[in-house]
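Example S7 (structure tokens).
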């Protein structure tokens, strides 16, 4: 891969994280990471509580636009690959990871679902 391009993307990602990023907490699940269960990891991510995601429902003209919360993080900040079923806490609200989408340049998009409030 072109080193110039890779460096440019990494520089842009770092600037976006610095400008738009907020502190979030990553919470590994017992099933996925028993070695880290009960520990929370603080990192910076870019959160969008209602990004429009297109879901194909079966054929042409059958697309549905569904708003989903999304968190973008840098893989180096976490130190391991996120896993579906783990959780993240953003502004005191816990979300379950539904899908993990690496971009191939060191960033990862986590598609989330808000956990129901207890009680």
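Recovered sequence:
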């Amino acid at each position: 891969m072109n080193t110039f391009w890779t460096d440019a993307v990494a520089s842009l990602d770092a600037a976006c994280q610095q400008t738009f990023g907020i502190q979030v907490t990553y919470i590994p699940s017992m099933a996925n990471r028993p070695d880290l269960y009960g520990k929370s990891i603080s990192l910076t991510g870019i959160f969008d509580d209602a990004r429009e995601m297109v879901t194909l429902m079966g054929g042409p003209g059958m697309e549905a636009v569904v708003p989903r919360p999304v968190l973008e993080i840098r893989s180096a900040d976490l130190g391991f690959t996120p896993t579906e079923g783990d959780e993240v806490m953003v502004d005191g609200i816990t979300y379950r990871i539904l899908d993990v989408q690496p971009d191939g340049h060191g960033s990862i998009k986590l598609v989330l679902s808000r956990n129901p409030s207890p009680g």
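Notes on this example. The chain has a mean pLDDT of 85.
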